[in-house]
Amino acid sequence: MVGKTFRIAMYPWVAIGHITPFIHMANKLAQRGHKISFFLPAKKLGKVEAFNLYPDLITFMPIIVPHVEGLLIGAETTNDVPFPFHPLIMSAMDRTEPDIEAYLRELKPHFVFFDFTCWMPAFTRKLGIKSVLYCIISSGTIGYLLSPARKILERGLTGLDLLKPPKGFPSSSIKVRMFEAQGLAAVTTMDYGSGISFAERHLRSFSDCDAIGFKTCKEIEGPYCEYTGNQFEKPMLYAGPVVPEPQKMVLEERREKLLSNFEANTLIFCAFGSECVLKEDQFQELVLGLELTGLPFLVAIERVNGRGFVYGGWMPQQLILRHLSAMVNDCQLVLVPHVGDQIINARLMAGDLRIGVEVEKGEEDGLFTKDDVNKAVKALMDDDSDLGKEIRANHAKWKEFLLASSN
């Protein structure tokens, strides 16, 4: 099939953290000449069109998301509602199934890339279309939480179950504390739309698809991908890091002027994403901890002693991380996992790969203090820190590997 081009359809879970990596993958596929039809809630088109690098090959297909009782009028993605309402967004997405099937009958793609829509493989198989579960959740997370070896649908899942890995899971640095295990078990077994639990939705998707793809490579997550593929008895596709192309836009003058006040490689950039909300006391500990480091930091709109800034609106993260003050693409990672797969990902990065430092939290309550934040940053950034030297060396090694892999 060398040199052959394909028609591909994509329908990611309607969360910005899923839509974005699907768009990155669409760009990589279009770069090789493949034609992409990308299904997306109609009102979100304006926010993502700028990221389409191949408009002649990638077509955004607007989908009208049906209203579900309990949702605000016009809510289409997880970004529009608090976390407890995400299952209703999923229910609304499930109701688009007839429209998606009609589109696919007309488009006749060779492949469909999907993730949370567990009903996709059933009718794509009838239409002669191959379904690829393109999972942007790490394979370590899927293998640890949702391995068929746990028999979740038959036995259920408790926090105690998650204190140890499933049978046959690769040797790793993944260790889950009780407060984390209880939270993960609750989310994994909760109703996640249309009366289907989060676990059942994913187990059906993984079991029914034709192939599984992860946004990673063998060098980073090989054992976890292999374990997951064997558990579900599916072919495994390694998509690679899918590093996005550098944005051609430039920072607004006011932000450029702000960042230029600081010396090169000194600014701490704190990002939790648009859907992760810290409680007020933890946010305060975070900012006080950053202040204790003595380094300039960017978190908010409010000025803090001339050194720190807190900003509550949308931030052009890629552009900020390219600025000299923010260590360009050599940014070191201080990890503060909050929910879900962030917990497993943090253990993989701080433990297996040794490319970041995780902020310590209380064993019982999961809370961190300003001193915990300061300690983690200092351990990573102090020139005489042995841990910092090891982490920076590993970070540089993996950075070089990822950049080479993306070319």
From TrEMBL:
Belongs to the UDP-glycosyltransferase family. This is UDP-glycosyltransferases domain-containing protein. GO terms for molecular function: UDP-glucosyltransferase activity. Keywords: Transferase. InterPro entries: UDP-glycosyltransf_plant, UDP_glucos_trans. It comes from the Eukaryota. The keyword Transferase applies.
